[in-house]
């Protein structure tokens, strides 16, 4: 198995933690995100990390970017789709363009990355696709209509991929994050919350790493992660 991992959607928080975790396991990690300055700083710190400026919603750019990864690092064995986001409005308030933007990054971006990488993943004895999801995929609150509908579609897509690709030895898993991720901006927004209130990105990365190491006889499709204090 080639130890090459692609992380789509790298920023402070889960994306960076995923990069650090897989670099620590001696993977060559392709970091894909829009911020060139941020990626360059991270690549300077982590010798195994490689920066590629990438917008997950620019579907026309996908084939060239993933072919570049293959040429530079070799065949990919792990795809971590961490790109996401959405508009938090009611169905009445949100525009059709806002619905489409949420769908484009959460669903179309995952489809495009998967299609581009499948020929490489199929060359591996063991390969994984892990999607970072959210509890909105399971419940649509009144003011999360664009985001929740996109995440629900993403979850259904991941389920379809898991059923299709499992017989080929490609493990597809969906990770539901139920809680507030520990980030500088969430700390500023919630200054009175204790440490244990937040989801730690390094713990998320550990869980994702575990998924990529599971034996095929006991694969997990969906893993939900939350702090003990989260209401569920």
From TrEMBL:
Source organism, top-level taxon: Bacteria
InterPro entries listed in its UniProt record: NAD(P)-bd_dom_sf (IPR036291), SDR_fam (IPR002347)
Pfam families: adh_short
Protein name per Swiss-Prot or TrEMBL: SDR family NAD(P)-dependent oxidoreductase
Organism expressing this protein natively: Marinobacter suaedae
């Amino acid at each position: 198995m080639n130890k090459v991992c692609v992380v789509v959607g790298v920023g402070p928080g889960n994306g960076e933690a995923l990069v650090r975790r897989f670099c620590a396991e001696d993977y060559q990690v392709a970091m894909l995100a829009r911020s060139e300055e941020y990626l360059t700083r991270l690549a300077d710190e982590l010798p195994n990390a490689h920066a590629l400026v990438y917008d997950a919603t620019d579907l026309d750019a996908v084939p060239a970017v993933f072919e570049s990864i293959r040429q530079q690092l070799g065949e990919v064995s792990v795809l971590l789709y961490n790109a996401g986001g959405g508009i938090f409005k009611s169905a009445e308030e949100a525009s059709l363009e806002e619905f489409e933007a949420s769908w484009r990054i959460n669903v179309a971006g995952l489809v495009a990355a998967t299609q581009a990488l499948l020929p490489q993943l199929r060359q591996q004895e063991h390969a994984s696709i892990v999607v970072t999801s959210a509890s909105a995929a399971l419940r649509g609150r009144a003011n999360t209509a664009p985001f929740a509908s996109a995440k629900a579609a993403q979850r259904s897509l991941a389920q379809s991929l898991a059923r299709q690709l499992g017989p080929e030895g490609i493990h597809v898993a969906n990770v539901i994050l139920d809680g507030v991720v520990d980030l500088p901006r969430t700390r500023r927004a919630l200054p009175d919350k204790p440490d244990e209130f937040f989801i730690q990105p390094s713990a998320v990365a550990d869980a994702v790493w575990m998924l990529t190491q599971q034996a095929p006889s006991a694969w997990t499709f969906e893993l939900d992660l939350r702090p003990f204090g989260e209401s569920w």
